[in-house]
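Researcher: Good morning. I'm working through a list of sequences from a screen, and I'd like to move beyond sequence-only analysis. For each chain I'm collecting a predicted structure so we can compare shapes side by side. This is the next one on the list. No need for commentary yet; just the structure.
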Amino acid sequence: MRELVIDLDAVVHNLDVMRSRAGGAMVMGVVKANGYGHGMIEIAKTLESAGVDYLGVADNEEALALREAGITVPVLTWLQHPEDDFKAAVSANIDLGLSSIEQLERVAEAAEALGTRANVHLKVDTGLGRNGAAQIDWHKVFKLAAQLQTNELIDVVGMFTHLSSTSEHDDMAQIGKFEAAVGEARDAGLSPRIRHLTASDGSLSYPDAHYEMVRVGAALYGLDPFSAGRAGEWGLRPVMTAKSSVVQVKRVEAGQGVSYGYLHKTERATTLALVPVGYAEGLPRDATRHVRVLLNNRLYPILARIAMDQFVLDVGDDLVEVGDEVVLFGDPRTGASSVDDFAAACSTINYEIVTRMGGRFKRVYVGGE
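Model: Good morning. Structure tokens for this chain:
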């Protein structure tokens, strides 16, 4: 009744596209937030089979779930909570993105207790103002990391940062600042082997900043990282198709109010088709009157208020039957709306649309064999 069809062949295709643009750099496939709503475990297994170099997730809980599923490829996390069990993460051979003295000390304690080394990537804030060591703290962080590495408690595998993607000027300034940070780290006695700075958008925009690895998230899922509807121009294929089916059809007279608030009233005798998808499934309420869905090879606008469990289509005199398929968004080559169409209609980005899809949707995986 409600399906998110996930095309695993498209995932592999998109990985190959981004790998071809990486200029020989390694590729990290980012599978955080349940694989951007596509299903973290299934996407990760597909990427591992396709030879991805690294996987990236936000936190250790996600990383441990990958290990429990049998994923063996290197995994990096970058959001560390004060109560995280670093012993579990180090035991599972998870690379830890760290950005503070406190984090370094706790990871070192875990490694010492286990009698091993922890793999660490130092994250520096070069201008985004989010996660990462502030420039004023770089010297202290690098000095401690070098000491812990000398004591064989950690191995500083890499260094990284994240661009703001505000403008080319701002991004270039961040790239320059990252170079300075790497220089300071080397002066402190560190030799990070893997530098990574660009995500999907930066990887497409700044080939000279690929370093040893690029991080690819949105592009893996066939999303234009600039949310400009240009994924096809990059050679990317959409991975997710959100679809349902008509569960009720009825004929009503002119003047019939439809759904909450009567945002839509029928202008003449018409047919209404009920579709069992609502904001509980992640369909934005703000999409009302702004998006179109595909039914029997025709796009119909959702004119009536989207409810928690359902929405209604006014299909006029068109023949529609219970069981007919409704595609909310998918591959525009099929005539369906794209996820970018949905995002633009809701004044947001495509990332948000796919990651919020859930509720009673069932994920169905195709391809990838």
